[in-house]
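User: I'm putting together a small comparison set for a docking exercise, and I want a reference complex before I start. The sequence is below, and the ligand is magnesium ion. Could you produce the 3D structure with the ligand included, as structure tokens?
Assistant: Of course. I'll restate your input first, then give the structure tokens for the complex.
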Amino acid sequence: MGLLGGLFNQFKKGLKRTQELVLAPMGRLLGLRRLDEAQLGELEDLLLQADLGVKAVDVLMARLRTELKGGADIDPKRVLREELLRLLRQNPAQPFRADGTQVVLLVGVNGVGKTTTLGKLAAYLKARDEAVLVVAGDTFRAAAIDQLELWAERAGVPVIRNQMGGDPAAIAFDGATSAKAKGTPWVLIDTAGRLHTKDHLMKELDKIRRSLQKVIPEAPHRVLLVLDATTGQNGLVQAEAFARTAGITDLVLTKLDGSAKGGVVVPIMERLKLPIAFVGVGEGVDDLVPFDAEAFVDGLLDV
Ligand SMILES: Nc1nc2c(ncn2[C@@H]2O[C@H](COP(=O)(O)OP(=O)(O)O)[C@@H](O)[C@H]2O)c(=O)[nH]1
Ligand SMILES: [Mg+2]
């Protein structure tokens, strides 16, 4: 199967709940060639339920209405596909390419899936035959370090850790030093989720950043803000505050598989003005998908 076919299937799997609850009823409407006002209203409701966001849904509905006024038959699915692709292609993520030692920091509030994503990302990079060093920067809970070690073991990559309660900036420094000495292309740093305010996040990140930069002046190369898709648009205000903090380069949207609000990628990308690098579609090691607008939209509209 081609790469895009593989991604399509992974997105389809990740969008299963969204499909069952929201998109399946939409299939009938998308197959129509003329829609009356009641049917347009029904379609609008379903699009909003999928959490595509008011702004995108307004644009979509306006375009459908314009095409309908033309009098000829229309293809609602094609219109939706084109508009969604336009929205989701505005801000593509830079590929994860090894280039010297690349330091990647994962941040976000407790429970969103940082450690899990880090484990999957380690396996993803390792599968490309690129060496990875994992840094247990969440020193707040002993269980967090154990959890990370388990993931690293699964991925077959080494971990650097210190004792619980240790300084995340110090362990990050050790990780960067070791990777630089050995020429390891990837350093993935886990962080604690007790980032309740923007100031707190800034402080913790600044401290880690300063200590990394003593070793590698350009580090961290990527700062991934991890967001939970099951929160839908409700989490966006807090995410916006985080996303505005200096240095966040990419978003990761986890738990798409557990959410009926799969359309939330649209308002997230639009509001945060940041690319989505990866999407989490399950708890397994292979359940991390590099975001691809086309595979995503086709997965969404395959109803
Ligand atoms: N279904 C599903 N569960 C996920 C996904 N990513 C993370 N989780 C689960 O979310 C929970 C919290 O994840 P964890 O990585 O510990 O979050 P952290 O506190 O941000 O490090 C765990 O039970 C994970 O298995 C995902 O993409 N899909
Ligand atoms: Mg964690």
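The first helix runs from residue 3 to 14. The domain at 102-248 is CATH 3.40.50.300 (Rossmann fold).
User: Thanks, that's exactly what I needed.
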